[in-house]
Design goal:
Elements lengths: L18 E2 L54 E7 L13 H15 L5 E7 L5 H10 L9 E7 L2 E5 L12 E6 L11 E3 H13 L12 E7 L15 E2 L32 E5 L8 E3 L2 E2 H12 L5 H15 L6 E5 L20 E10 L2 E11 L16 E6 L4 E10 L4 E9 L4 E4 L11 E5 L7 E6 L2 H13 L8 E3 L8 E4 L4 E6 L4 E7 L5 H19 L12 E7 L7 E4 L4 H6 L6 H7 L1 E5 L6 E3 L2 E12 L6 E8 L5 E2 L4 E4 L10 E4 L6 E6 L4 E11 L20 E3 L9 E11 L2 H4 L1
Parallel strand pairs: 1-3, 2-3, 2-4, 4-8, 8-10, 21-22, 21-23, 28-38
Antiparallel strand pairs: 5-6, 6-7, 9-11, 10-13, 11-12, 14-15, 14-20, 15-18, 16-17, 16-20, 17-18, 18-19, 23-24, 24-25, 26-27, 26-30, 29-30, 30-34, 30-35, 31-32, 31-33, 31-36, 35-37, 36-38
Length: 749
C-alpha cells in the first residue's frame, strides 16, 4: 500500500518566467470543504449507488496574473501528468516526461513573459485540481490568447448517466483517470461531458467569472487511451495507457461538473476548439520511458518545423508515430467550427485545404492470399467532387514532406473519400500516360498529393473591368493556387459565367450572376485585395460544389433513416426529412439535375411566433437531428455539415462513429447527432427570408471532413443561432435537407 502523501501546493516561480509548478511536502492538508456550488460533502445524493464522493474544494491554486495592459498574445498552459497512480491502477513511465517536453518546447519557442504554465503531477492531478486549473488559470486567456490543456495518463470508460444515453448509445463516457485517494480529491474520472462544460466555460468566462469579449484559441491534447483494445508490447518498449472500465455503477446526473442536473433539457455544450488525441477511441496509447508515443511525436514534429497549421501538424505527427512503430492512429478533430488552417498556438490563418494526404494500407495479395501487399491511397474521393467514372484520367502529383515532387500518378479507383492510384509517365512519342514502375514509396514517410486535373465541370468566372484592371487581377490569378485547385476557369463571355468579379472602381466585387447579388466587396486600398477576392471566390465554388454531392448508387443508404425535428413547433414537433425521389426518377425523361434534387427536398417553413420559439428579437426553432441505423452490422462514419448562407461550411460537432459491437440489439439504433440541444435555426425581423441547408454524409471509411469545412465571407447574413467480411467498402451516401424560411408578411407590416 502506498503511503498517502498530504499535498501542499507551493508556487515555484523561476525568475523571468511566468510559470506555475508544484512540489510535494508532508504537511497537514488544510483544504476548505465544499463542492463547486458551495455545499459540503453531505446531501441527499451523497451516498447514492453510482455517485462519486461529493467533491471537496482544495485551496485555491496559485496562478500568475496576465501582465496588466498587455496587448501581446499570451499562452496559458495547463499540463497534467500522472505516472504514479494509487494502488490498484498500473503505474506509467513517461507522463511526467511528456510535460517536460511540452514545457521545454514552449520555453524555447516563446518569450518567457508571455507564457503561463500550471503543472499538476501525480498526487496533485486530482479531479478537483484539474477543474480549478481550468477555472482559475486557463480562464485568464482572453481573445487572441491561446489556452492549451494537455493530459498524459490513463484513459478509461465508465457508465454514463441515464440522461446522456441519447448522446452515447453505447452507454459509456470516455474519461481521463485522475489521481484519487480520498473524498477530498473529488471524482476518480473526468468525463468527456465534463470536459465539454469546462471548455465552454473557458471560451466564455474569465477567472473572475465575468463574460469574455472573445474566445481564446483553445487546444486540447490528450495522450491517453479512450477505451478498450489490444496493445502491442514492442518487447516492453511501449506500454498501454488504458485503464479498464470503472465498475458497474452508472453515474447520476448530479455527479457531473457543468450543472447538467439543473437543465430543463440536457444540453452538452460545444465551444470552438481543436482536439488532439493520441489514438482512436478503440485503440490504446503507447507509453515509453522517454514519454508518450503521441506527445513525443508531436513535439518532435514541432521542433523540426514550428510554422505549421493544425492540419499540417497532425499529418506530420501521424507519420512520426508510424516511424516509432506504435499501433495507434492519432486523431485530429475540429469542434464548433474551429478553423484547422490556423497557425499552431496562434489565431492567424495559415494555408488552405489544397493538398491531400497519402495513406498506406495492407491488403491481401491476389496472387498469394497468404501474403499481403502495401496499397497506397490518396485521401480524396467522390465526396471531394471526383466522379466515379471520369471520361479523362484524373492526375495527381505526389510530393514528400519537404514539398519535393516524387512523381505523377493516375487515379485508378475512386472511393468515397480515398482513391487508389498508380504512378505514370508521359510517353513523348505517343503523348499518352504509361505506367511508371521505378517509383516506390516508403510507408514510414509522409506524402501528400495535389490534384493536377479535376474533370468536374469547371465554374466559369467573368471578369469585368478595363484592360489594365483585368491585368492586375489576372496576375494575381496566375500567382494563386487557390483558384486552380477548385477547377475555376475564366469565362470568355458573361453569358457562359455563373460568377463575376467586378474590378472597376475602388473595390473588387464578387457577384453571383444567377441571383444578381453582390457576395463580397473588398477595397482596393486593402492589403493584397486581389488575393483575398480570389480566395473568397474559391469558398463560393467549394460551397456550391460540395453541397451538390450525391451518390444515387449507394448501397448503405437503404440501411439508414435521417430526420430533423424542429422541437419548438407547437403543438407537436415538426419532422423534416429527405424526400423519396423514386417516383420522380422513374417518371423523369432525363436524370434529375442537382438543382431539381435540392428543390424537391426543400421544406417551406413559416416561422410564426405563435408556433415557434421567439426571443432576443429572433423567431426560430431548436433542432434535433436524428439518424436511425436499421440492422447495420458494420462500422459507419457520420458527418453532419451545415451550409450557411454566408458560404460557411461548419461541422459543429465533427465525426460520429457507429460501431455495431457497442449495441446489444442492432435492429434499430437511434443516434442524436448534436449533443447541443440549444442549437437553433431562425430569422430576425431584419431578414424575413432565407434558405439553409443541412447535409449528412455517411461513409464506410473515415472521412477527412476538414477538407470540406470553411469559414464564411464575413457577410451579415447568418441565420443560424447557437444559444449556448461481407461488408461494403468504399461506399458513401448523403442526406440533404433544405429549409426555405420566411416570417409571415402579416407580422412585418
Amino acid at each position: 500500500m502506498k503511503t498517502p502523501i498530504q499535498k501542499a501546493l507551493i508556487l515555484e516561480a523561476e525568475l523571468g518566467f511566468a510559470e506555475r509548478s508544484f512540489r510535494m511536502e508532508n504537511e497537514t492538508n488544510n483544504n476548505e470543504t465544499g463542492n463547486e456550488n458551495g455545499s459540503g460533502t453531505e446531501g441527499e445524493n451523497a451516498n447514492q449507488e453510482g455517485d462519486p464522493p461529493k467533491p471537496v474544494r482544495p485551496k485555491k491554486i496559485p496562478t500568475g496574473p496576465r501582465p496588466d495592459g498587455s496587448t501581446e498574445r499570451q499562452i496559458y498552459a495547463l499540463l497534467v501528468g500522472i505516472n504514479n497512480y494509487p494502488e490498484g491502477i498500473t503505474d506509467l513511465r513517461g507522463c511526467i516526461k511528456d510535460l517536460d517536453q511540452i514545457e521545454n518546447y514552449l520555453k524555447g519557442r516563446e518569450d518567457a513573459a508571455h507564457i503561463h504554465i500550471l503543472r499538476l503531477e501525480d498526487q496533485n492531478a486530482t479531479y478537483n485540481n484539474i477543474i480549478d486549473g481550468f477555472k482559475n488559470h486557463l480562464s485568464k486567456a482572453q481573445a487572441k490568447d491561446v489556452a492549451w490543456f494537455h493530459f498524459s495518463g490513463h484513459g478509461s470508460e465508465e457508465l454514463t448517466a441515464e440522461a446522456f444515453l441519447a448522446f452515447a448509445p453505447n452507454g459509456k463516457d470516455q474519461t481521463m483517470v485522475t489521481y484519487w485517494e480520498s473524498e477530498a480529491d473529488g471524482h476518480r474520472h473526468l468525463a468527456d461531458k465534463e470536459m465539454a462544460a469546462l471548455i465552454k466555460d473557458l471560451a466564455t468566462i474569465d477567472e473572475m467569472r465575468n463574460q469574455k469579449l472573445g474566445s481564446p484559441s483553445i487546444v486540447i491534447s490528450q495522450d491517453c487511451c479512450h477505451s478498450g483494445g489490444g496493445t502491442r508490447d514492442m518487447e516492453n518498449m511501449i506500454l498501454s495507457r488504458m485503464h479498464p472500465l470503472s465498475g458497474q455503477n452508472r453515474r447520476t446526473l448530479s455527479s457531473y461538473y457543468g450543472g447538467y442536473d439543473k437543465q430543463s433539457s440536457i444540453n452538452v455544450p460545444v465551444a470552438p476548439h481543436i482536439a488532439l488525441a493520441a489514438c482512436e477511441s478503440v485503440q490504446v496509447a503507447g507509453d515509453m520511458q522517454q514519454g508518450g508515443v503521441f506527445t513525443s511525436s508531436l513535439i518532435e514534429t514541432l521542433t523540426q518545423e514550428s510554422e505549421l497549421n493544425y492540419t499540417d501538424l497532425f499529418t506530420r505527427t501521424r507519420a512520426q508515430v508510424k516511424r516509432i512503430g506504435a499501433e495507434q492512429t492519432p486523431q485530429f478533430e475540429t469542434i464548433g467550427g474551429f478553423n484547422p488552417y490556423t497557425k499552431f498556438l496562434s489565431d492567424e490563418s495559415m494555408g488552405s485545404p489544397l493538398l491531400y494526404e497519402l495513406v498506406a494500407s495492407e491488403k491481401a495479395n491476389p496472387l498469394n492470399p497468404l501474403r499481403t501487399q502495401t496499397v497506397w491511397y490518396v485521401k480524396c474521393g467522390a465526396v471531394h467532387g471526383l466522379p466515379a467514372q471520369a471520361e479523362q484520367p484524373i492526375l495527381i502529383t505526389v510530393q514528400n514532406q519537404e514539398g519535393e515532387e516524387i512523381g505523377k500518378a493516375k487515379l485508378i479507383g475512386i472511393g468515397a473519400q480515398q482513391s487508389s492510384f498508380q504512378f505514370v509517365r508521359l510517353d513523348s512519342e505517343t503523348n499518352t500516360w504509361q505506367t511508371e514502375d521505378n517509383i516506390s514509396l516508403d510507408p514510414t514517410q509522409n506524402y501528400q498529393a495535389a490534384l493536377l486535373s479535376l474533370p468536374a465541370a469547371p465554374v466559369a468566372v467573368w471578369i469585368v473591368g478595363s484592360e489594365s484592371e483585368k491585368e492586375v487581377l489576372l496576375a494575381a490569378w496566375q500567382a494563386s493556387d487557390k483558384t486552380s485547385a477548385r477547377n475555376i476557369l475564366l469565362a470568355t463571355d458573361k453569358a457562359s459565367a455563373t460568377l463575376a468579379i467586378d474590378a472597376t472602381g475602388d473595390h473588387y466585387q464578387l457577384i453571383d450572376l444567377k441571383q444578381d447579388m453582390v457576395l463580397k466587396k473588398i477595397a482596393k486600398a486593402d492589403d493584397k485585395p486581389e488575393a483575398f477576392i480570389l480566395f473568397d471566390l474559391g469558398k463560393v465554388v467549394n460551397w456550391e460544389r460540395s453541397l451538390q454531392l450525391n451518390n444515387p448508387n449507394s448501397k448503405i443508404k437503404a440501411w439508414l433513416d435521417f430526420r430533423l425535428e424542429l422541437v419548438d413547433h407547437k403543438p407537436d414537433s415538426l419532422i423534416l426529412g429527405e424526400a423519396d425521389l423514386s417516383a420522380e426518377i422513374e417518371n423523369a425523361e432525363a436524370p434529375l439535375s442537382i438543382q431539381q434534387f435540392l428543390a424537391l427536398n426543400k421544406h417551406q417553413i413559416e416561422l410564426d411566433p405563435q408556433k415557434f420559439f421567439a426571443g432576443n428579437g429572433m423567431v426560430g426553432s431548436r433542432m434535433k437531428p436524428v439518424l436511425t441505423f436499421n440492422k447495420v452490422e458494420q462500422k459507419l462514419y457520420c458527418y453532419l455539415l451545415h451550409y450557411k448562407d454566408d458560404y460557411a461550411i461548419i461541422a459543429h460537432e465533427g465525426e460520429i462513429v457507429y460501431r455495431p459491437e457497442e449495441h446489444e440489439d442492432t435492429t434499430k439504433v437511434e443516434q442524436v447527432l448534436w449533443s447541443n440541444t440549444n442549437r437553433a435555426i431562425g430569422l430576425g425581423l431584419a431578414k424575413p427570408k432565407a434558405t439553409d441547408h443541412l447535409k449528412l454524409l455517411v461513409t464506410t471509411e473515415q472521412l477527412n471532413y476538414e477538407h470540406l469545412v470553411q469559414g464564411g465571407l464575413e457577410g451579415d447574413r447568418n441565420i443560424f443561432l447557437i444559444e449556448d467480411d461481407n461488408k461494403i467498402s468504399d461506399d458513401w451516401c448523403c442526406f440533404t435537407i433544405t429549409m426555405e424560411l420566411a416570417i409571415p408578411e402579416a407580422l412585418l407590416s
